[in-house]
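Hello,

Following up on my earlier ticket. Below are the three sequence lines again, exactly as submitted.
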Amino acid sequence: MIKSLNFLGRPTRDKLSLFVPLGISFFVLGIIDVILNSFFGVNITSVLPGWLNFFTPLFFGFVGLHYVRIEFSGNKTLDSLNKNINSNWFNAILTLLIIFVLIKNIPPLLNWLFIDADFIGTSKEECSREGACWVFINVWFKRLMYGLYPNAEIWRINLTFLMLIGLVISAFFVPVKIKKYIIIFLLFLFPFIAINLISGGNFGLEWVETAAWGGLSLTFIISIFALLFCFPVGMFLALGRRSSAPVIRYTSIGFIEFWRGVPLITVLFMASVMMPMFLPDGTYMDKLVRVIIAITLFEAAYMAEVIRGGLQALPRGQYDAGKSLGMGYWRMHLLVILPQALKLVIPGIANTFLALVKDTPLILVVGLLELVGMIDMAKSNPDWLGFATEGYIFAGVVFWIICFNMSRYSQRLEKRYKTDR
Amino acid sequence: MNLKSSTSSLTGFFSSKPKFKYYLPQILTVLGIIFIFGYFSYNAQVNMDNRGIDFGLRFLGEEASFDIQFSLIEYSGTSSYARAYLVGVLNTILVAVIGIFFATILGIVIGISRLSPNYLISRIAEWYIEIFRNIPLLLQLFFWYFAALRALPLPKEAINFFDVAYLSVKGLYVPKFIWTNFSFFLYSIIASIIAIIFVYRYARKQQESTGKQIPKFIISLGIIIIIPLLTFLIGGVSLSFEYPVLTQLSKTIFNYIGGVSIIPELMALALALSLYTATFIAECVRAGIMGVTKGQKEAAASIGLTTGQILRLVIMPQALRIIIPPTTNQYLNLTKNSSLAAAIAYPDIVLVFAGTAMMQTGRAIEIVSITMLTYLSLSIAISIFMNWYNKKIAIKEK
Amino acid sequence: MSDKIIEMVDVSKWFDDFQVLKNINLEVLLKQKIVVCGPSGSGKSTLIRCINRLEEHQKGKIVVDGIELSESTKNIEKIRAEVGMVFQQFNLFPHLSIVDNCTLAPIWVKKMPKKHAEEFALKELEKVKILDQAKKFPGQLSGGQQQRAAIARALCMQPKIMLFDEPTSALDPEMIKEVLDAMVDLAKEGMTMIVVTHEMGFAKEVADEVIFMDEGMIVEKAATKEFFANPKSDRTKLFLSQIL
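Thanks for your patience. The regenerated structure is below:
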C-alpha cells in the first residue's frame, strides 16, 4: 500500500524540490484539518462517511511525511527531523498521533488553567465557573503555608526558616575554620532555638500547641528534623550491621528489616495509638514528637542501607591502611572510612531525603495537617466546596517544584562526585 | 603502687583483652534490649489494667458488628473480627495485583519509549516519569479520588460501554459472570496448561536430538483455546451474564443494580498506584535494556541469528537479570503503598483492621502488631525469594 | 585460488554528513588472506562491517559469494551464515557457557541436533586450545581465552569467510601471541580471512595482500612483500614508519 504512494517516483534527494513542498503541504493540510475540527467545529472532509472522516487528518499527515522522508537530502534540518520522528511509517504514525493529541488538548487546558481563570478576589462568588478558581488558593494561602498557627505569630516561623537558610548558605561561603562552628551550631543549638521560637511558652513568646502547626511549614519542620536525626541513627545501624559481633549484627539487621518491611501508615498508627500504651501511666508525649520519632526511625532504616552501600563500596585497602596505622575501630571509621563512604552515597542520601519529603503528607491520617491535609480541610469548608481540583493542582505544583529540584541537585552531585574519582 | 597507676593498669588490663572488647558490647546490647522491652511491657500492662482491657487474641472470634463496603468473600456485621481481617487482606491483595499488572505494562511501555530514537516519544516518556515521580503518592491518590473521579457523571448519564458496562461517579459497573459447572472449566484450563508444558518439553527434546523445531507456540495456542472451548460445547459448562440495570431507588436517586460494581475507591487507588509505580519500573526496564552492550546484539547478528532469536536468546536473558530484582522491590513497595487506602476509605487491612476494628475494640497493641506482622511476613517472603532467585541466575564470574 | 568470494564496487557510505567510505573497490578471492591497516578513523572497521551488513552502505554494490547485499533480510541472513566475525571486545554471551556460546547459532540457525553441535563445538575449541574451559563461563576466562573462544564460536557456523576487527587491540600484551597463533593456524587451514589489525608481524607471516586505508579511501593495495618493501604512496610510508 505504501508502494502505491510512490506513483510519482520514490522520494530521493534529486527530486527534493518536488517532494518536500508536496510533503509539507499534505502534512500541513492534516494539521489544519485537526485544528478546524477541534476548535471551530468545521469539518472540511464532511463528504466522507463517519469513521473515514475521523482518519483523514492522519492520512494526510502520513502521506505528507512519506513524501518528506528522503534519506540524506543534504538539508541538515530535514535530515535530523527525518531520522528522528520520521524514520519509518510506524514512527510517522506515532508522531502524528502525538501531535494531534497535543493540538486537541493543550489549548483547552491552558485556557482553563490561565486564560479563563480567576486570580483576584476574596470570596467564592468572584469565581466564574469557566476557568480555574485560583481565588481559592489566594484566600487560603496563609493557612496552606502555616496551618492553624495564629496569624499574629507567623513571623516566628518565618524568622526560624530565615535563620536556617542563612546558616546553611553561610556554611558554604565561610573559611573552613568557622565552618566547623557553624555546623556544630546548626546541629546542636539551632534545634533548641527553633523549637523555642515556634512553640513558644518561654521568653515571653505566646505558646502555640503543636496541633496548630500545619501547612507547608510543618512539612519542612518534620522533614528537616527527621533528616537531622535519622542520619546518625542510620549510621549506627549501618555500622552495626557490618559488625563482627553477632548480637549487634543481628539486632541491627532485625531493626532495619522491621522498619523496611512495614508501610509508613502502620508506623504512624503505631506512633499515634500504640506508643502511648508503652509510656508510663500519666506521662504524655506530644503527638508531633511521637510522629517525628516514628518517621525518624523509619527513614533511619532506609538511610542505614544507603550508608551500608557506601561502606561496602569502599575498597578493602582503606580498612587495611587504617588498621595498619594502629587506628582503633572508632577512630578509623570517624577519620577515614565514613568521610569517604558518605561522599560515595550522597545521591542515595539525597534520594532518601526526597522520599522522606514525599512521605510527609501521610501524617494527615493521624490528624496532623501539613500542606495536603490543609488542602483537604480547605476544600471541605462549606463556603468553598467544589475546588478540590484547584487545591490539588496547587499542592502538586508546589511539591513537584521542590522534589524536581532536589532530584536535579542530587543528579548534579552524583555527576560531580563521579568525575572526582 | 599509687591509685593512678593501679587504675590505669586496670583499664589497660581490660582494653588489652580482645575477648573483653568483643563480649562487653554484646552483653550490654542484650541487657539494653531486655531492659527496653521490660520497661515497655510493664508500662503497657499498667496502662491496660487501668483501662480494663486484657491482652489476648480471643477478641478475634467476637462479632465485628460493622459493615465493609467492598468484599470478595461473604461478610456481614455478624462475622467475626478474624473474618474482617481476612476481608481486609483479600482487598489488599486485590488492589496490589491490579496495580502490579497495570504498573508493569505501563512501565515496560514507558521504559522502552524512553529509549526510542523518536524525539517526541522519548521526551514524552521522560516528562511522564519526571512528573509522576516527583509528586507524593498520597497527593496523586487524592487528586484521582477527590477531583478526577468525582467529575464523572451521575448514574443517569453514565458513560456507556457497548451497553454492558457503565462508568459513573458511583463506580464502574460490569456484568457478573454466572457459571454452571465452573469446576469442570477450571480443570480443563489446568489440563491445558499441563499439556502445554509437555508440548514444550517434547519440542525441546526433539530439537536436541534432531535439530528440527516444532511450532510449539501455535500448538500451545491451539490447546489453550480448544480444550476449554470443548467444555462449553460438550462438557455442560455454560456462562451467562447478569447485566447491571439502571434502577430508580427513590425519587432522585438512580443506580445500577446487578452485575459487579467496582467502587471508585478501588479505581482511584489502583490508578494512582499504577501510574506512580510505573515510573520506577520504567527506569528499571530502561537500565536493563541499556545494560546489554551493543556488541552483544552485533555478535549475535554476525553468527546469523534472526532478530527474534537475538531478542529471545541473547538480549532478554541478560536484560531480565538486571530488570527483575529492582522490579520485584517495586512490587513490594506497591503492596506497602496500598496501605494508603486508609486515606480514602478503601477497605484494605489498614482501614478495616487497624482502623475500624481497633476503634471498636481499643486493642491497639494486638491489632497494630498483627497488621505490621502481616506486611512484614510478605516483605520477608519476597526477600527470601529474591535472594534465592539472584543466587540461581547469577552470571558466574572469576 | 579461484573465484571471487567478495566483490565491492564503488562502495560509499555516509554517517550523517560525514563520508566514511569513498568509492571503495575491492575483490577478495577464495582462500585469500587480506590485512587492512591504517590510522584510526580511516574507515577500515566500517569497511569490513559493511560486508556482513552490521553497517549499511548507501552507494555501490557489495556481492558476497554470489549474493548481493541489499535490504532483503533473507539475503542478509544467508550472507551472515557464511561470514564469521571476531570483535575487538570479544562479545561472548556472558549468560551462556563457552560451549553453549558456540552451539547457539548452529542449533537455532542451522537446526543442528544438540549432540552434533556440541561435538563440533568441542572440536573447534580444541583447535584453539581451550577445550578445558568448555563448561566455564566467559567471566571466568582471561582475555586471550575469551577471544579464542570467540574465534571458535564464529567457526562453528562453518563460514567461508572470517572477518577480524582488531582482534588483539583489547588484549594485554602477553595474551596477543596466543590469539595470533590461533589465527595463523586458521590461515594455514585455508580459510579466507580479512583482518583489520596493527600487528604487522602477523601480516608479514600470513597475509597475501595488504591494504592501506586513509580517510575512507584505499590508498595502497599490494602483495605483502611488495607492500612492505616498496610502499608507493607517501602516506603509506608515513604510516609504516610510525608503527614499524
